[in-house]
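ok trying this again, last paste got cut off
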Amino acid sequence: MSNIRNDAYLYTGINSVSNEPKTPRELQKESKEEAKRKLKPAAEVVLEAIEKERQAVCDIRTLVMGSNPTEQEANTELIARQKFLAYLNGLESKIKTIMADKPKKRGEGANNG
C-alpha cells in the first residue's frame, strides 16, 4: 500500500528550456545590454570630455612647433592630429551606438486587437 514513489527531491526547478545553451546572438545582446547599463551613468560626461578634447586638438594655438619648423614636422603634426580626431569620432560614435534606444519592432507594445 505504501509503495508510492516520491521523486520530489530530484526536481531542481530547472526545465529543459532554461538549460539550453545560449546562442551567440543572445550572448552578444546580453553583452550590449550590460555595456549600456554600465555606460549610462557616465555617458554624458564622457561625451563632453570627448568634445572638449576635439576642440583642443582643433585649436591652432595648441600647435607646438619649434621656432622654424620644417614642412615634414608640420605635416607629421597635422597627420597625428587627424588620426587622433578620427579616433575621437570613432569613440563618440561607438558610445552613441551603445546608448541608442532601439526602435521597437512592429507589433510590439501595440495591441491591434
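PB: full thing came through this time. The mean pLDDT is 79.
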